[in-house]
Amino acid sequence: MNLVKHLNPFLKFLPLLVIYLILCILKQENNLIGDEGRYVIYADNLLKGFYASTAEQEYTFLWNGPGYPIFLTIFRYLDLPFIIPKLFNTLFIYCGIIFFYKTLKLFISLKKSVIISLLLGLYYPFLVEAIPKLLTEALSFFLICYLIYNATIYFNNGFSKYKWRASIALGCLILTKIVFAYVIIAMLVIGIPFLFSKRQKQKVKKHFIILTIGFCFSIPYQAYTYSITNKLLFFGNSGGMSLYWMSTPFENEFGDWHSFETLQNKPQLYKNHSKFLNSIKNLPPVEKDIALKTKAIENITNNKYKFFKNWQSNLGRLFFNYPYSIPASSNSVLFLFIPNSIIAVLLVVSFVLSIKNYRKLKSSIYFFAIFTVIYLGGISLLSCYPRFLYIMFPVILIWISYSMQEFLIIKIKSIK
User: Fold this and answer.
1) Which of 244, 237, 276, 271 is nearest to 258 (CA)?
2) Mean pLDDT in residue range 188-207
3) What is the SS3 string spanning 22-67?
4) Closest CA to 45 of 24, 69, 63
């Protein structure tokens, strides 16, 4: 145990990297599936000197941020096989686990940190989604782990280099998953009143510094989107479609996302939605995004209870990959139910414990808790899936571990 205790984390978790490499080789496919093709198209566009495709192609207009396509450009430039960037996914997750472990042991014991890190590092549903595919999850996972490690040290000690590292990680995360731009904006707005509180000012000031610098890294991208849309703070045109499906007022539809291009293959959905969708079919992407959001708000306003039911279903998909309007032939819910039920319960308990003991929370836990709540609250209003949750597991598990250790385990021991 002493040998393990003093072993370099990169050596300590090296077996995980071997497992990831084997998984990547066994599970990866040479053809592109689903969203993978879009990231490759964006990378090719960047090599040609632009990012967004023509205004008629909404799915490759500003559907995603440029973070992951920028990473892919070197592989596309060298015309390397797709397995090469997929192998980098193994490194992203491996390094992410190491930074997660290094962060976790700042809050709880070494032994518990190793166990929890291994549990996260061997969580198969996430690995099989993130490693063998050209998707943003592995990179996002690493950026989040690197962010929370550097942010924790900065909040604790105020060292400048960790401030910059955390800010850069956050900026890259925004460009990789644009939803985090809105998370940051919300955190900044919520934090403004606390800047005027003598008790909270110093704590919140450091939060503001990282959030503000991180957000500034997205300014070049915002300048680009403004140049082609004439809209400020415009990060992407994919939100309207997601909100539209979440707002569906029709029975036996649960708010899950469907591509407009394949809707004719789904007779009941096509019958319910074709009239409206055909009426906006020829609109440019930005105008179509606005039209979808307007219709979604109308649906929500007129069908509040149905939207609440859709929201409940969305939480089910987020944690358990169920239910869907068109049932999929998958047993994933069986594999997700037990581990994700435990995480869901512990997350609620941690939330309650944090509210009850908010004066005792460390600065970093304040940051992680608010970051988590805003992110989960935001994506729960849009059609979402388990992979949107997986990338937040490092933050969630640190919050849970700290809350259980500080406010539950210690209290139980003191009672005994």
Assistant:
1) 244
2) 86
3) HHHHHHCCCCCCCCHHHHHHHHHHHHCCCCCCCCCCHHHCCCCCCH
4) 69
3-state secondary structure of 223: helix
Closest CA to 18 of 123, 98, 100, 91: 91
Sorted by sequence, the CB contacts under 8 Å of residue 313 that are 6+ apart come out as 254, 255, 256, 323
Between the alpha carbon of residue 74 and those of residues 27, 47, 77, 95, 290, the distances in Å are: 23, 9, 5, 21, 35
Distance CA 8, CA 394 (A): 20
Where does residue 130 rank: exposed (0-12), middle (13-18), buried (19+ CB within 10 A)? Answer: buried
CA distances from 299 to 122, 188, 296 (A): 41, 30, 5
- Tens digit of each residue's pLDDT (9 = 90 or more) over 54-90: 766 778 899 999 999 999 999 999 999 999 999 999 9
Say whether 11 sits in a helix, a strand or coil. helix
Predicted confidence (pLDDT) at residue 6 exceeds the cutoff of 80: no
Count CA within 13 A, CB hemisphere, residue 251: 0
Would you call 270 exposed, middle or buried from its count of C-beta atoms within 10 A (0-12, 13-18, 19+)?
middle
- The residue type found at 73 is T
Residue 284 has pLDDT above 60, yes or no: yes
For residue 89, give the nearest of 147, 135, 43 by alpha carbon.
135
The whole-angstrom separation of Cα 56 and Cα 45 is 15
CA–CA distance, 338 with 334 (Å, rounded to integer): 8
Please determine, for residue 5, whether its predicted confidence score (pLDDT) is greater than 70.
no
388's tokens: 């949107």
